[in-house]
Specification:
This protein is an alpha+beta fold and about 130 residues long. It has a domain at about 10-85: 2-Layer Sandwich (Ribosomal Protein L30, Chain: A). It contains 4 helices and 3 strands; from the N terminus they run αβααβαβ. It has helices at about 1-10, 25-40, 45-50, 65-75, and strands spanning about 15-20, 55-60, 80-85. It has a 3-stranded antiparallel sheet with strand order 2-1-3, covered by helices on one side. The termini are far apart.
């Protein structure tokens, strides 16, 4: 019995993550209507999915089943991906470890620069506007 529990814990499960990344409102409405019809979703669930942040729509499933969900969502016009479920069961950003470390490069003078250092003022980046 203990071996069965260990084997069950070692089986990889996957989750399907949906994100609403439409720049065209008409395309977004068509995808929303198609998703509502295909998956019988309520307006409340569609509003949650349309938040613009990644939303896990199905979790704890096999890879084959995740592929079926991904294909159905993509046929409906949605944007989604499959990722391995985390051991703690919580959602983790899939690119979190692969992103570059954010650092403020304005803390020192670039003496070797050909152009003079123009980075003394507030820039256009969102992290600059906190000053």
């Amino acid at each position: 019995m203990r071996e069965t529990m260990v084997n069950a814990a070692m089986v990889k499960t996957y989750e399907v993550v949906y994100i609403d990344k439409f720049s065209d409102a008409i395309e977004a409405d068509l995808a929303r209507i198609s998703l509502k019809e295909r998956f019988q979703l309520s307006d409340r669930k569609l509003d949650i999915m349309a938040s613009g942040t990644p939303v896990v729509v199905k979790k704890g499933i096999s890879y084959e089943e995740a592929c079926k969900f991904e294909e159905a969502i993509k046929r409906s016009g949605g944007v989604c991906w499959i990722q391995e479920s985390s051991p703690d069961g919580l959602y983790h950003e899939r690119r979190g470890s692969k992103r570059r470390a954010l650092m403020d490069r304005r803390d020192h003078y670039r003496g070797s620069a050909i152009q003079p250092d123009r980075r003394m003022g507030i820039g256009r980046r969102s992290m600059d506007k906190r000053h």
